Amino acid sequence: MNDLRDLYQEIIFDHYRHPHNFGPLGGANRQAEGYNPLCGDKVTLYLRMDDDVISDVHFEGSGCAISTASASLMTEALKGKHQDEALRLLDNFHGMVTGTATGEELGKLKALAGVREFPERVKCATLAWHTLQAALENRNGQETVSTE
Ligand code: ZN
Questions:
Q1: In contact, 36 and 127? CB cutoff 8 Å
Q2: How much distance in Å is there from the Cα of 36 to the middle of ligand 1?
């Protein structure tokens, strides 16, 4: 178990130091911003939707290791997913970090399972996912104009 824990921590710090899919996304057609005042985490999420499929996804922002690693791992998991699949992943992820699901099908995202032992960090881990939900539902009306 300790080896697994070390591996998971390595994944988190690796994604924190070198976030994947970080920066603006040319051709993005959905955007949402998220903020977690408890920790000061900020994330802006950019999606390029092709019909109902997430063809690309990037994020920007600043936050703690948990929020940054969660956003980075999330963007990796989302590419090529239908938005219904993305929302199922969100449910599974939320269940995993709140302790109501095992997260068995979440792959690398399981690196964040340990968050369930730290309830005050759950919002760090779920920030990017709540932002994703807002972007998919386009709740804040930021239909982004492409810069390209
Ligand atoms: Zn945080």
A1: yes
A2: 7
Sorting pLDDT into bands at 50, 70 and 90, what band is 145? very low
What residues contact 39, with CB distance under 8 A and at least 6 apart?
A: 63, 64, 67, 121, 123, 124
Instruction: Identify the structural domains of the chain with CATH numbers, from first to last.
Output: 2-146 (3.90.1010.10)
State pLDDT tens for residues 40-57.
999 999 999 999 999 999
Question: Which residue, 98, 81, 65, 97, is CA-closest to 132?
Answer: 81
* Nearest C-alpha neighbor of 148 from the set 55, 48, 27: 27
Residues with CB under 5 A from ligand 1 (ion): 39, 41, 64, 67, 124
Q: Kindly state the tokens that stand for 10.
A: 């390595």
- At which residue do the structure tokens 């939320």 appear? 94
What is the CA(81)–ligand 1 centre distance, in A?
Answer: 26
Q: For helices 122-137 and 65-78, give the axis angle rounded to 10 degrees.
A: 40
